[in-house]
Records
---
Amino acid sequence: MSMMNQRDAVFAAVCSVLGGVPQGQVELKGEQKKAVHEAVVVGFLTGQIELKGDRSPEWIAKYVPGLVNNWVRKDKRLNGNTEYVAKNPGSRSGAGDEMLKNLRALLAVNPDPKARKEIQSAIDKRMEELKPKLSIDINNLPEHLRQFAPVAVLNAQNVPVKAVPPMIRRTSATSAAEVELAAEPELTEEQLEELTQPE
């Protein structure tokens, strides 16, 4: 017998507790929610529901309420057939970063407006540092599309160019370079062709 995925397991538990397939948006009340949680916990403990890794019963018991809440909001069969939209998109950005976690905690306990502004500035700076850098490996692009790569990428990967505008800077010379792209000037096709011609 194959295991059920977590989404379908939550749906099945909700249907079981409510006595059938729900019509419209599901709102579980106290005892209903408790019964759904228990059914999903039992499913995990008996190996009927997919779960990566070997987890303790205590971990599973703490995991299940968030799992159920997640699928009640996101599964169209349970949320009245509506597209889920996150209330605060990006609010979990940097959640694993200790510095950011501590900066946010400091902001939460500091009432001084001047200090809050400085702390928020540090948070914004740290968020910018954590953003993934654009990475394009020219070697993994079809030959006919390589001409569209920004000049900074060509330069970072040692593709011969006659000139690189000073406002575009190289941050790495690896084959799959991570580059920061400054505001690039609009280049005509002739200028781009001239820049990428071998000397």
Note: Confidence is low (pLDDT under 50) at residues 160-185.
---
Amino acid sequence: MQDKTQLLQKWLQELDNNNNNGFITLESIYKLIEDNVNNRFKKKGLRYKFNYRMLTKAVGNYFRDVLFRVIENNEDVKLVSKLGTFSLSKVLCTKYNPTKFFTYRKDGKLITKKMKFDVNKTDGYFYYIYWNRVKAYRRCKIRFSRRWKRMIYKEMVLNFGDCVDNTKYIKYNERCNNKRAKEKIRNLQKVS
């Protein structure tokens, strides 16, 4: 059996070779681990065959449980394998309106659209699930479906829920040359 680091490097190379517009999907992970997991099942004497449905159910159920705990119970939930923590946060949008860029392919062409969020419905706050991740995963992103975003809106606005206010930690002007202002922001981040 190959060393775990060699196997991981092989998987990462294959994921880089697959063109998923920079995203790692469950399907690409399944294709890479299918043979290894099936071999482990045979060694243990199990008759089951590992399939894509088993992987999606396991990952889906795990994240469903985590997101319910984050949104409904307002917990900070630690993820497995030192992936970081999820928590519910809000930002008061005084100096900007949150925007998001959507990039997708249509007929082979790469299309990018910009969408602005209307924060007047939420008293000027923008609610989101914050992933406090370790340095190794700083380039990774998780896309949450509309279901979870609606659930956040329902829980926070309609049911008068509350969560951590991260307004003071956001760098409003990153191009600011004022060293004192940058030091104040750093000190505020260290305090909590």
Note: Residues 172-178 have pLDDT under 50 and may be disordered.
